[in-house]
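Lab notebook: predicted structure, single chain.

Context: the supervisor wants predicted structures on file for every construct in the current expression panel, including those that have not yet been purified. This is the next one on the list. No modifications to the sequence; it matches the entry in the shared construct table.
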Amino acid sequence: GTDLFAGKKDSDPDVRFGREILHINWDTGHASRRGRLFSPVHSLFTLPELEFNTAFREDLYKVEAPDALTPVGEGEVILRYKENEFSAATAFAGSYRCVVAGFPFETVIEQRQRFLLMQAVMKFLEGN
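Prediction complete. Output recorded below exactly as produced.
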């Protein structure tokens, strides 16, 4: 989100791509310090609490600046940061489908949590 929106005008192609194609708007970077996520309401994304890495580790990089993303138009929030309820991930279903997260998927710490999250994303993208 930061790369698409920060310091750019509404007419910039990156901003237009974010809003018109990904159906997101960028709210802020550094949206979470703890890296804990929860699912709000969407039935496909009824997941246990998830956690992404926010600490220095040898085996997994630290997420220092996760983004808060707001859905645009018919987009919807599918994950929120637990500490402040900012939107952590959005989904859009129209003539195409997309899911956008404000944190790197690969930094979700537990393998089972990554599996469940990707399973939910794939079901959503398939239209199930």
